[in-house]
Amino acid sequence: MVSAVAKPARKPLATTKESLFQWEGKDKAGRAIRGEMRASGMAVVQSTLRRQGVTVKAVKKQTFRGGSRITDKDITLFSRQLATMMRSGVPLLQSFDITAKGASNPALGRLLNDIRADVETGSSLSQAFRKYPLHFDALFCNLVGAGEQAGILDTLLDRLATYKEKILAVRGKIKSAMFYPIAVIAVAFIITAVIMIFVIPEFKKVFSSFGADLPAVTNVVIAISDFFVGNWYLIFGGIGAAIFGLMYAYKRSEKMQHGMDRLLLRLPVMGTIVQKATIARWARTLSTMFAAGVPLVEALDSVGGASGNHVYLTATKQIQGEVSTGTSLTVAMQNTSVFPNMVTQMVSIGEESGQLDGMLSKVADFYEQEVDDAVSSLSSLIEPIIMVFLGALIGGLVVAMYLPIFKVASVV
């Protein structure tokens, strides 16, 4: 059986929803052929195929599985695949076909097919990406647009893929550094709650038959247990409501974002890691956009948001305002007081030598390595601390419950 792809029907009005249809039929020579077509309905597919001399046997609407949510990792992998194929000389539409069919996430495959359809009907690649701001931010679209205008799309796609890979790696290290202690604290709280609600009340029943005074520490633990038993729904509900409220307020209040991010930067140990990761993302983003030929003031529009920290977003807006009035980037960065001296010195050298993008790239490389080393050191440091914490917590409860038993045994 010969495979063929029919020419798409005339693009419908913007209000008409298109679907993907699979069809089978025979060409004028009687050979069996099949293909796919995006159209507004089955009748449109049949009439288009008949005009092309195809005898239609079957038309079926393509159905998709739901697929999981499209993640940053999916977009990063797509960026690398598209960059590799474009640099190898594969045509753009064919590159989208290959990437969409090979996507492990059906939702990503559908997204790429929609983008391909837009490009096929005359939209530029950057315009097609801008229709999906949830997955392709302004930085991504600006770099693709710059590559299209300069005729170096393959080169900028390669830079963009490298940029997203490095940013994703730094973000992953920060998440791994924060996940371990948070997970341990959550598990410790759940275990403690279970002991307080189910185990200690049983000990309380045993102790009530002793008819003797209990140690002070045992009385304290029993009192806490009684509070847990009587108010467990308020405790868990309050914690859940507090977490939800903080997340809700953080998303909708700039003051909350600024305050929380500033607090995060001031945390011992973890704050240093977050600052280094933020500076690495900031420098990497500005380096990538400046190397692509995007003007500095325009590039700073995307840099603040890409840093991932509201303190640096505010600082970037201040830098952008000062640079637009003629202030050098180095002086503007120094005025914000959020960048270490090493960073501003490297930027100063870059401005004087005309190699700002190269110096920013070196700053990003340095801080990415610093984050890697800090996360490794934190992992080795935090493990014994967590063991001591859990030992003291669980061991203290056990000792508090067994002290009365030991006293009774000594009296006997």
Query: Helicity range of the residues?
Result: over 70%
Count every beta strand, where a strand is a DSSP E run of 2 or more residues.
Answer: 4
Rg over CA atoms, rounded to whole Å, is: 30 Å
Distance between the termini: 92 Å
In percent, how much strand structure appears in the residues?
5-15%
Tell me the major beta sheet: 4 strands, mixed
Instruction: Choose one word for the global shape.
Output: flat
Structural class: alpha+beta
Q: Mean pLDDT, as a whole number?
A: 83
The run of helices and strands is EEEHEHHHHHHHHHHHHHH
What does this structure look like?
Helices cover 74% and strands 6% of the residues. The chain has helices at 42-51, 72-87, 92-102, 106-120, 125-130, 138-150, 153-208, 216-252, 254-266, 270-291, 296-307, 310-324, 329-336, 341-353, 356-411, and strands at residues 2-3, 19-26, 32-39, 55-61. Strands 1-3-2-4 form a 4-stranded mixed beta sheet, covered by helices on one side. It is flat, with a radius of gyration of 30 Å.
Name the features.
single chain, 412 residues, alpha+beta, 4-stranded mixed β-sheet, 15 helices, 4 strands, 6% strand, disordered N terminus
